[in-house]
Amino acid sequence: MSIFQRLIKFYSSASAIGNTKTPLENFSTECLAGVLKSDENLLRDFVQYFEIETNSTNLEAETQVYYKLGDGDFIDLEISADRDSFGNSTGSRKNFIDLEISGSDFCCFIEIKVNSKEGENQLSRYAKILKKKADLAPHLKPYLIYCTKWQEGEVVHPIKPILWNDIAKFLGQPKFSKSDLIQHFLKFLNQQGMSHNMNFSPKDLEFMGVFQDNLKRMNKYIDNRIVPILGKNCKRRDLEKSVNDSHCYAIKNQILKDVPSAVIGAGFDLTNQKLTISFWVSKKDYLNFDDHLNKISGLKKGKADEDCGNFWTYSDANGASFGYGKHIALFMEFDDMEKEIRKWFEENWGKLKLDMKNTWPEYEWDETLFKAN
Fold it and tell me: What is the pLDDT of residues 327-351, one digit of tens each?
C-alpha cells in the first residue's frame, strides 16, 4: 500500500467520526502539488510537458488560491458563501483555484476533478480571472488546464483538457523511476482508478471481439433460461451496468410490498467466475437494519455443511445481501453443462425463497413469489 493510500485511509477514518465526506479531489490536489514542489526540476519538467511556454527561472506552485470576481477587479479573500441562507445569490462567487503554477512570464490555473463535474460556469469564471490578470500584467501569458478522470465532452479554447492519466504518464517516465515519492504517488493514482493504460495491442482488440460474443451468449442465456425461472417482474440488467461492475444479471423486483430496493439477482459473476443468485435490500428501507444483519448472520450459521461453501453474505454502507454461488469450472465435467447450470439455478432459487420466507415471515412478500412458476 502506498504512503498516499495510507494517508487517505487514515483521513477517511478521521472524517467518518465527524460524518464528513472525504474530499478526494482536495487530497489528490495537495498530493500532486507536494510532489511537484519537492523538486524544482520536476516542476519545470511538468510545465514543459504540458506545453506551458516560459523563460522564468523561478517557478511557484500554490493550492487553493482564492479570488473574488464581482463588478470590479478581483481581490484575494477568504472563502465567502455563494448564496445566503435563503438560497439567493450574494452577487459574488467564490473562486478558489485548485492549483496555480506561475512564473515571471506566465500564470497557469489547474482545475482538478476526480469524481465530480464542473461547477456552475466554473471554468468560464476562471477564464475571466485569468484574462483580468493578463490585462493588468500584459507580460503574463495565461493558461487554464482542466484535469479530469475522464473527458467530459467538448472543452473549448482557451481551456486545455488533460486527464489524470496524462499526469500519470508524465510521472511514469523512466527518469523519475528512482524517486520513491513519485512511485508512491503513481501507486496511489492506480489504486484510486485515476491512471489507465490507454495503449492497445492486437490481442486487446481480439479479446474485445471474443468478449462481445460471450456477452451476447450470456445475455441470451439469461433471457431464455434465468428470467423464466424467476418469473414475473424480472428482466435482464442494462448492458452498460453489467459491463461496469462485471455482473451479468437478471433482476427481479417488486418482491416486497412498499420496498422498491428489495431485489433478486441471478446470473454470472464475471470477476469471480461464478454462477450466483441472491437477495438484496437497501439499508434506507429499514429502521432496525442491525436486526436485519443479525438475521442474515444467523441464517449463515444454520446452513448445512453442504451449503456452507456455496452460501455467502455481504453488507456495506448501502445495504446487505445473501445468496448462493458456484464456480463455473465445477460444471465442466458434465456432458450437458447447460442443463446442469439451469438445474443449479432452479434448485438454488428454491433454497433462496425458503431462506427469505423462513427468516423474515413478518415481511409482506409478493403473494406469487412462493408459488410454482
Answer: 999 999 999 999 999 999 999 999 9
Question: What confidence category does residue 18 fall into, taking pLDDT thresholds of 50, 70 and 90?
Answer: very low
CA distance to 4, 6, 38, 70, per residue, from 35 (Å): 11, 16, 5, 34
> Kind and range of the H or E element at 128?
helix 122-136
Q: Which sign does the torsion angle of CA 296, 298, 303, 305 carry?
A: positive
Angle, helices 3-17 vs 24-37, to 10°: value is 140
Closest CA to 236 of 265, 274, 270: 265
Classify residue 230 as exposed, middle or buried by CB count within 10 Å of its CB (0-12, 13-18, 19+).
buried
Amino acid symbol at 280? W
- Sign of the torsion formed by the C-alpha atoms of 268, 269, 274 and 277: negative
- The C-alpha angle with vertex 283 and arms to 353 and 351, in degrees rounded to 5, equals 10
Rg of the chain over CA atoms, in angstroms? Answer: 27
CA 326 to chain centre: 27
Q: What are the b/e assignments for 314-336, b being 16+ CB within 10 Å?
A: eeeeebbbbbbbbeeeebeeeee
Alpha-helical segments (H) within 137-245: 164-171, 180-191, 202-221, 227-230, 239-245
**Cα–Cα distance between 164 and 169 in angstroms, integer?**
9
Q: What is the pTM for the complete model shown?
A: 0.55
Is residue 286 within 8 Å of residue 292, measured between CB atoms?
yes
Stronger pLDDT, 124 or 196, i.e. the higher one: 124
